[in-house]
Amino acid sequence: MKNSIVQENNSTLSAGEALDIRKAIVIDAQFDQPYIIMNALAGIIASYALLAGSVSGVIGAMLVAMLLGPIAGLSLSLVDGDYALFKKSSLSLAGGVGIVALCAFVIGMIHYDMPISSEMLARTNPNYLDLMIALAGGAVGAYAVISPRIPNAIVGVAIATALVPPLCTGMIFIARGDWEHAFGAYLLTGTNIIAIQFSSSIVLWLCGFHKVVDRFYSNNKVIWLNGITILLLILLFVTLGTNTKLLVDSITFETKIRNVLAREMRSYPGAYVSETRIAMESGKTIIRAVIRSPNSFSAEDVAKIESKLPDSPNHAPIELRLRHVAVEVITKNGVVNDAEMSQMAKMNDESKHLFFTFR
């Protein structure tokens, strides 16, 4: 019987349920007044939250965003081979992205002099981790669309969280003329959109939505639309793979730098590293280290420490710039002088040696 539960290529959805889900996705993909207003408000709230560095504000802003609908429409159109739905969903998504971007750009121009927050910088260097999060988020979003037990609005918040903040971040950087950070933010935005759509399509396909098989030979557009999605995903894997390698190399290099500096400070009683910063300037890798010590350092000391630093990942020359902050070591007996500190350090080393010798 047509109204009974049917097996549609291993799917347990009834024909009526599948039809209702398709209708709901098509309705949610519309570009209408509520969609325009809610996305504009999401862009405004997210932009101000990013400038303020407010994590809770960024998350709260997503309660009003409505970007899941068009992405679900794209996913369904690709597995069903529905070019009309693909066109409608694409225009709706582009319109929503444009509204959010416009709001963020205006706010970025108004508050041009506000400092860049850590929340913004965190969205300018996407890697494999971001891709995996987006793929998982897209799968959850698609499953929520077809499952009445999962609140669709909550999943929509999660999807919007992956899209609106980096989108606003990119526009704020463009308003400041910072194209490098803007590119990173929009790379993250594109990564999230493509990954969410791809994993959503996979889930919908597994749940029985694949009319594309019937339309494969009758509609050539189906072939290249799905091919473009797969090609974009491959390009993302390559691009983000490069970014991930650069990130891992950078973290490893910074860790080695801090370890070398900490080890070298053992030769200077009472000295310790309080801050380390690494930056590329004029073709050099500049390492700025703030050392708090009762003893001053000579140029020979800096050269000796610099010679033991690891090579930069980009093979640029390394220059150590040591900033010495003089400190006094005071006990209940008064100020400890250099000789006493040296003797104390020597006694500590001898004690450690004896301890490990007799263990």
How would you concisely characterize the structure shown here?
By secondary structure, the protein is mainly alpha-helical.
SSE string, helix = H, strand = E?
HHHHHHHHHHHEEHEEEH
Tell me the count of domains.
2
Per the CATH scheme, the topology name of the largest domain is Glycerol uptake facilitator protein
Mean pLDDT: 78
Beta-sheet strand percentage? 5-15%
| Major β-sheet profile | 3 strands, mixed
Describe the global form. Answer: elongated
According to DSSP, the number of beta strands is 5
Class by SSE composition: mainly alpha
- What strand line-up does the widest sheet have? 1-2-3
Segments where pLDDT lies below 50 for 5+ residues?
A: 1-11, 349-359
- Which CATH-level-2 architecture of the largest domain? Up-down Bundle
Ends distance = 82 Å
CATH class of the largest domain reads: Mainly Alpha
Percentage of residues in helical conformation? 55-70%
Q: What is Rg? A: 28 Å
Total helical segments: 13
